[in-house]
Backbone:
């Protein structure tokens, strides 16, 4: 069966691209253009007609890719036509009427690419990330993953395990013979090192944070200027600024880009012990937000009594910033528990100190959550598999230490290999396709 889909976004545009994939591609091109399929990979201008009537639909570029040198690994074509709604609709209609052709399912082109070994699952996921990327850091991360950086890393771990397993099995097999001893021990050393590497990778969550956005919560007592600060940082009137205490009862969030990294900045209800039920709910949510956030901006202000709610969620953690606002009214001195680099004197009213604060925030987000050279864990799916792999490895090591049979240790290594193989699709690819392609759109 040959599939087709509009691969550009629907609606009016200069150009629309319809893709075809499958063994009927070349005959269909001939039917549509009255000429044989063009040379592979050469753009050719053709008149596209309705095969039945010969009525012209549009003229456009036709590209033909011969299997296996195509995105899907099958014969493929791209029809670059004018992006008018009527033209696209008509051509899609004509294609639907042709024998051996059917509309593609969401993500089907990429799914075929995986099935035909053109890319692994992490690369397919990166295609989706590439399309969804909204900031430069997201796009860079997606691109690297699409080029295979993450898949190569996971595959190298699987290969290492395969080697360790082979050594261990040799050890088991020739246990009674005169082999130089100690292979088992060497293997266990390798496995322990790999387990550490995997654990460190799981711990480094920046890849996922980069995909979803860094969460920053602004917290502090009512009236210290949290909403004003949010507006200043976000550069627009996103939160209502009011002189009455306790106005921001719910959470106002703005998304912005800091140091190339997507961030969600949340203005929370002023944290204070008093207040009515609605306000208490606001405070509860604020504390919740504060505890979940990657970075907290703790705000105080000159002349505003800090309501000392010393709740755990609101405590100052490493990486947080402390902002003393309303410095136009008077000077706040730095609490001696704080580093100079974490303490900022500003005035949201006059703007004093604000550019310094925003610059520091950019740098902090970039260094803590920005891209590094090492490929980072990007998806929960990967993390779950890696955790399962690491549990198996640690169990194997423990067994070996307590003198259990080496067969059991080997079984743990096999399990770990399988889990890692599931990330790239080297193992179990069929059963993983639905999960990976759940969020894909048509034409991808
Ligand atoms: P929130 O309750 O913490 O969100 O505080 P708001 O942002 O609503 O500000 C409370 C009041 O303080 C408003 O009247 C603001 O105009 C005022 N305010 C905010 N920042 C400053 C500042 O830096 N200096 C002065 N003088 N007033 C400020």
Residues:
């Amino acid at each position: 069966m040959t599939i087709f889909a509009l691969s550009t976004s629907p609606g009016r545009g200069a150009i629309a691209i319809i893709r075809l994939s499958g063994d009927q591609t070349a005959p269909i091109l001939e039917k549509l253009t009255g000429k044989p399929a063009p040379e592979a990979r050469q753009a050719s201008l053709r008149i596209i007609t309705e095969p039945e009537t010969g009525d012209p639909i549009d003229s456009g570029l036709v590209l033909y890719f011969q299997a296996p040198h195509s995105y899907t690994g099958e014969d493929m074509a791209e029809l670059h036509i004018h992006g008018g709604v009527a033209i696209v609709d008509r051509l899609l209609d004509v294609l639907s009427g042709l024998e051996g052709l059917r509309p593609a399912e969401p993500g089907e082109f990429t799914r075929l690419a995986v099935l035909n070994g053109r890319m692994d699952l992490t690369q397919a996921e990166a295609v989706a990330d590439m399309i969804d990327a909204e900031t430069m850091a997201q796009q860079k991360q997606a691109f690297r993953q699409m080029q295979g950086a993450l898949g190569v890393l996971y595959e190298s771990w699987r290969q290492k395990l395969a080697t360790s397993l082979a050594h261990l099995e040799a050890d088991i097999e020739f246990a009674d013979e005169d082999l130089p001893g100690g292979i088992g021990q060497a293997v266990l050393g390798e496995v322990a090192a790999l387990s550490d590497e995997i654990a460190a990778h799981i711990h480094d969550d920046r890849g996922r944070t980069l995909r979803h956005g860094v969460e920053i919560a602004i917290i502090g007592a009512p009236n210290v200027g949290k909403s004003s600060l949010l507006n200043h940082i976000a550069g627009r009137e996103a939160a209502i600024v009011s002189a009455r205490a306790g106005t921001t009862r719910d959470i106002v969030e703005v998304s912005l880009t800091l140091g190339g990294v997507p961030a969600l900045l949340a203005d929370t209800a002023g944290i204070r012990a008093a207040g009515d039920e609605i306000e208490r709910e606001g405070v509860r949510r604020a504390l919740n937000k504060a505890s979940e956030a990657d970075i907290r901006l703790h705000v105080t202000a000159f002349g505003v009594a800090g309501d000392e709610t010393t709740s755990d969620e609101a405590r100052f953690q490493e990486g947080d910033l402390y902002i003393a606002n309303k410095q136009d009214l008077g000077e706040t001195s730095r609490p001696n528990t704080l580093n100079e680099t974490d303490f900022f004197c500003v005035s949201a009213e006059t703007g004093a100190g604000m550019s310094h604060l925003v610059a520091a925030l950019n740098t902090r987000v970039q260094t803590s959550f920005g891209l590094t050279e090492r490929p980072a864990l990007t998806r929960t799916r990967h993390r779950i598999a890696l955790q399962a792999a690491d549990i198996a490895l640690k169990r194997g090591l423990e067994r070996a230490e307590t003198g259990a049979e080496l067969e059991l240790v080997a079984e743990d290594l096999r399990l770990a290999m399988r889990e890692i193989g599931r990330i790239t699709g080297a193992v179990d690819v069929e059963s993983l396709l639905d999960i990976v392609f759940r969020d894909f759109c048509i034409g991808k």
